[in-house]
Please model this.
Amino acid sequence: MKEAIIGASVVVKGTTNGTITNFDGKFTLSAKEGDILIVSYIGYKTQELLIDQRNEYNFILSEDTQALDEVVVVGYGVQKKRDLTGAISSVKMNDVPINTYSTISHALAGKAAGLQVTQTSAQVGGGSKFRIRGAGSVDAGNDPLIIIDGFPVSQGSSLESGTRYQAGTTDNILASLNPNDIESIEVLKDASSTAIYGSRAGHGVIIVTTKRGKTQKPQVRYSGNVSVQSIKNGYKVLNGADYMRQRNRYNYENYLKTNGLDVYKDYVDVGDEHTIPDFVPTYSEDDIAKATNTDWFDAVTRTGMLHTHNVSINGGSESTQYMASLNYMKQAGVVKHNDMERFTGKVNLDQTISKYVKAGLSLNISRNTLDNVPLGSGTFENAGILSAAAMFNPNLPVYDEWAIIQ
Model:
């Protein structure tokens, strides 16, 4: 069935005499025999027709695939694609191995020119920082505006631990989406995007488009993925005996400095009445011979695992199209007690009510559960879990004699 084209341009060639088609695709124009009518519309091949003695003419326009590829319709007009290649980047999620990522933010790293994605925390589901055109503000935020299916959404926030320890950051709003539901992601990098979204788009815009229903028989799809993760190169630390020897050497060096001996005698003044005690090593040779060894990295790390399951149904008729999906994702990080679990449900419904009225529904339900070990910026008991493991005494057992963690 042919559809009427609204707003097609009809002009008498070589003149300014012209008009546009109405809602029914019809037009009225005064012209004389021998004139040539030019009918054009964006995305369609232009037609020319010689006027004869008839009073009515029918035009059937065919799509111009090449023209469609060369123009991009944006909120503030129509521009040639070659003029926008530096201003807009597009990422098709079919090109991204999404099954190996816990959130969409991590999958976008290095995929769009001009978009810098920095993962601020190595925790599972840790925060990601987006920068388009760099950081333009010192005191105000530099985050781009995120649009999901036409609706602006807010960013994520920090994850509070409730204690004196830091707890890292959660990812932005994209972490609540199922990566399998994403059709494409566009990144608007030029300042003219503020013409659509206002000052909030001053640092760029990220537009996320989710999959919609198609006119087809219902199709049910299931996809699942299981992957494992491991630490490639851990820290090389001392064993129990070497730790004791190095501790004795450090204490002896400190003993020389405190008492102004050896290389310190010309630099450290201890006074005439100072009595120099005998040096007693912290660990004797017998202690070193009986040294034990605790691998603290092995005690706090594990083999990580990520598994996802996705079920979706897509279909519809000429008037009604629908897409619904359920997704479950669970990731156990390489650090113990570092986990993320996500349940998402998505429904997109499009209904054609009449020739000029179309309604749609987009519903996304998400529940994210994060379990992250505390982080710290100090040393020993105030350090982060991996820093503490690197500095802990390897002679101490993980459990004491009552099987209680030290």
